[in-house]
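JOB MANIFEST
job_type = single_chain_structure
chain_count = 1
residues = 595
[input]
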Amino acid sequence: MLRYLQPTIVIPTLTALILSTVAGGIAWQRIETGHREALQRAFNAETGEITLKIDERFKAYRQVLRGARALFAASREVTRQEWGQYVDALRLSEDYPGIQGVGLAVPLRAADMARHERAMRAQGFTDYHLSPPGRRNEYTAIIYLEPFDWRNQRALGFDMYSEPVRREAMARSRQLGIPALSGKVRLVQETATDTQAGVLLYLPVFRPDAALATPAQREAAFMGWIYSPFRMNDLISSAVGDATSRVRLRIYDGHDITPANLLFDNHPSRPENGPVSSRSVLELDSRVWTLLFDSASGEDLAPPALRLEQATIVLIGALFVLLTASFCATRQRAGELVRISASLRRSEARYSTLVNLSEDGIAALDANLCFTYLNPRLIKLLGFPENELLGRRVDSLWPTKDASRSQTLTERLRHGEATVHEEQLRNADGRLITVIVTLAPHVDETGALQGGILTITDISERKASEERIRYLATHDPLTGLANRTMFMEQMNNSLLIAHRHRTRFALLFLDLDHFKEVNDSLGHAAGDALLQETARRMRHCLRASDLLARQGGDEFLALLHDIHGMDEAFAVADKIRRSISAPFELDGRSCSVSV
């Protein structure tokens, strides 16, 4: 033991200890700072996605209201039954969760109140009256609100102009002719149980074909408001799902962070200032929401990766001290060097096990991008024998040969740059596999490129699922035609193009006559077959540039792009009518419908 305390060993060892402590402390601080910055960036990306989901959800809600307004473009008067059928077809709970309903409110004069109440009572609402009571300069009344469940029944006949927050949003929408979101309110639908903050989205309805360029013209053509109420907890939970399970999200109406402006708080019992936080402002229909995000737990501040890096710093410092001492006393350090070597071998064995058991394909490449090692997962993914892959260039697996691309990858590796990109590889069966390819450089102590480390993650199933989801979101599953969502997007694009380029387009509303008799007499399967054959015939009557959509039931819509006049639209409509008039053969029976 005394030989380890000799000055020739102690002094260099203490010097090495001091230097390693200082350097390790600096490295420790930099790694921790870098980790915190990376954690903040990741948190900002996560919260940005949550904010985007809320914004996208409101875009969908606006489309719902615009669809309801389109009913008034087709008919000056929309009945309660038609309104209910439209809202039922939307399937709000399945396709638009978080929305409390879709309603219609109309303005009233004091002289019309008694006649209005008598008319509503004549429709079966015997206890109907305008609420709250009292004399006011202006009145409004909610006359339609679907689905007409127990919550929404409480709102029938409510005068939203009687409440200042609602009145401000309604007046803004009415005067400017735009969608308007209200501030924080207590909805009429609320009870003493599970009370939530609420907001309302309004969309003005004007007479069809009326001029709307000035406030006076809009006021003269004004008919009422299409609106939707939202319970904030239901709205945000449906919009972001479980994305906020690890994050505390608070939403405030406006810029002021006060309890009176609080719209939503998913974890009120958690601390307000988490280890990581961010703040964003979301503008929704002339209304500003302030979103505050706080991480829910401090555990994220010290994940295994950070602890491993910190442990590595300590280990490097200790090794430096030990190596210094070993140079001074080789014999005294011989036994410790043996133990260190054994520890390194065990570490290498552990890392080798991790690589071999990884779900990702991992390979080592030489400087020419040729395989020198492949783990079992990558061999299985590619389907080639290992001896055929060793020595083979990685770009030989790509379906198209591009020498310049391979040169670019090599140059980036030589400059120490890692690359991550999506790629398609061809396996031994000739099948294309969609993968994420990560290629990192491997250099020696002089910085010279020795090769690369390749990681391949198979995302074929995920890509196929994403494509299927995108298709189902825009197409009718029965007929394969575009659905209402896709049609409205194309319709809006056609309006913009027609306005910009002074072109024309036509919109055909197609409804099958006698479909119900066929469906009732031959069964739903025959009715589905009839709709599919009808869609096929209609498609043959249109150009490739035109769009055919199924609106629902036996109703179809056709969008004819770039026509020269109404005669062309009438010709297409007549062509469709004649095609549909031909008899249909369904299960050996002939039937006829018309359009």
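[summary]
The chain has five domains: 2-37+302-353, 75-237, 245-298, 358-464, 475-591.
The radius of gyration is 34 Å.
exit_status = 0
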